[in-house]
Amino acid sequence: MHKPTYREFLSMAEQGNLIPVYRDYDGDYQTPVDVYERLKGTGFSCYFEKVERGEKNGRFSYICINPVKVFIRGESGKGGTSDPFEDLKDVTERLKPVGYNELPDDYPGIIGFFSYDAVRHIERLPDLNHDDLNIPDAVMIFPGNVIVFDNHLRAIRVISNCLLDGISDSNDMKEAYLKAVRNIDGIITTLKSEAGNGKLQDKRKDKGKFFQPIQFKTNIAREDFEKAVVRAKEYIEAGDAIQIVISRRLEAEIRIDPLRIFKALKEVNPSPYMFFMDFGEVKLIGSSPELLVKVDGNRVTTNPIAGTRPRFNEPGMDREMEKELLADEKERAEHLMLVDLSRNDLGRVSKFGSVNVKRFMEVERFSHVIHLVSEVEGELLENLNCLDALKACFPAGTVSGAPKIRAMEIIEELETNKRGPYAGAVVNLNFRGGMDSCIIIRTIVMKGNKAYIQAGAGIVADSIPEREYEETQKKAEALIRAVKLAEEVEG
């Protein structure tokens, strides 16, 4: 049965111009990634999933296909060069959604990414580095269809976002409703076809076959990276900054299906934010552990993460790592600095006196590491919206440094290439005026047949250059492992 009924649809159309029409379907024996693989087609699409700490899968998985609108901004893209934050705000303000309260809070209304260099629409920064990736500042899609996969109930809801811009005639209104119904039924017909299992299957016919191992090369030699760390420390000692996040990038030529890499990444590095964005030539394959900023009603939240130890998945060893992490003065000082930075960011868009630290320096276990995590929240000013909150917090201090502007100026001097999507944000705008966003880290960026992995280290006064280089390698390891696993399986 389709919901709402046509009579209900007409009543809702009197209140707004965007209505979800949907039908539920039994999702037994199908997995979200398998469903996405069969429905995504050749246009822009994405897969998005929130995963609870310590779990391998989230409650809901979202498949976004058949975009009604594609929003591209930035000198590197085909879109305009105007401010993507303000332009997207204009787009959202023209939408008057009705009937979305029955859908999950994380339901993607408009979803995509902002590259790190979108910050140039917020702050004036030097422009020194080569933009070799040539990826837009922002790419967002407004999906015509969203398939919500409830992983607990094994149920699927197929939704058509029915946009009624300029439609008032009764015949046109009925045709819009019937078109949505036909669209939904067509998707369900596809879903009823033979399903796969969505897991990483070994397609090799000859298990003894020799595979040429993938070789990642770095955009900066180890010696040069360590020199950059030394230079960053000199800036810190001179009082320019407290912390500067210096990163390096790995790249390799890949000739396998990017979605297979995502399947491998879900297996080897399940994280709070799992996403696969297929935006034509550009694809993001991500497993981000860190929220950038979230807006729910008038509540705005950040979760700074700083301080890391490895996990051994053995209770006694993990507890020892937790004690060691909590006792590490360097890690604690760095974490406190980032909490203060988050308070300052939220203070720019929150009511006076409303910013507070809800959780402070708590240990959280992820799939492969243990982190120190805090939660900072505020009450959003009444004249501002979620995109104002995004601007205030962008980019995160955990991938730039403090003070943020001076740290970014030094990053531009010490790094060799524009960052592209790395250290930017995946942004999910819902149709309730809210937003969820995560930092683009632990993410593979693909353009054409090239895969790029970038990782950084937070440089402070007592940083040891050799260890900072090794930290970037450790952060990249799970991504490299996912690529190699996918390559071996595909053969």
UniProtKB/TrEMBL annotation:
Per the record, what are the reactions this protein catalyses?
chorismate + L-glutamine = anthranilate + pyruvate + L-glutamate + H(+)
Q: What EC class is this?
A: lyase
The molecular function terms in GO held by this entry are: anthranilate synthase activity; metal ion binding
Pfam families found in the cross-reference section: Anth_synt_I_N, Chorismate_bind
Residue stretches in coiled coil: none
Question: What organism does this protein naturally occur in?
Answer: Koleobacter methoxysyntrophicus
Please state what the protein is called.
Anthranilate synthase component 1
Q: Which PANTHER family match?
A: AMINOBENZOATE/ANTHRANILATE SYNTHASE, ISOCHORISMATE SYNTHASE MENF
Q: Which NCBIfam families match?
A: trpE_most
So which cofactors does this thing need? Answer: Mg(2+)
Pathway the protein contributes to: Amino-acid biosynthesis; L-tryptophan biosynthesis; L-tryptophan from chorismate: step 1/5
Alphabetical UniProt keywords: Amino-acid biosynthesis, Aromatic amino acid biosynthesis, Lyase, Magnesium, Metal-binding, Tryptophan biosynthesis
Record has Lyase as a keyword? yes
- What is this enzyme's EC? 4.1.3.27
Any one of the GO BP annotations: L-tryptophan biosynthetic process
InterPro entries per record? ADC_synthase, Anth_synth_I-like, Anth_synth_I_N, Anth_synth_I_PabB, Chorismate_C
Q: Which family does it belong to?
A: Belongs to the anthranilate synthase component I family.
Q: How does it assemble?
A: Heterotetramer consisting of two non-identical subunits: a beta subunit (TrpG) and a large alpha subunit (TrpE).
Where in this chain does the record put each Chorismate-utilising enzyme C-terminal domain? 222-475
Function per UniProt: Part of a heterotetrameric complex that catalyzes the two-step biosynthesis of anthranilate, an intermediate in the biosynthesis of L-tryptophan. In the first step, the glutamine-binding beta subunit (TrpG) of anthranilate synthase (AS) provides the glutamine amidotransferase activity which generates ammonia as a substrate that, along with chorismate, is used in the second step, catalyzed by the large alpha subunit of AS (TrpE) to produce anthranilate. In the absence of TrpG, TrpE can synthesize anthranilate directly from chorismate and high concentrations of ammonia.
* Highest taxon of the lineage: Bacteria
- Ranges for domain Anthranilate synthase component I N-terminal: 30-153
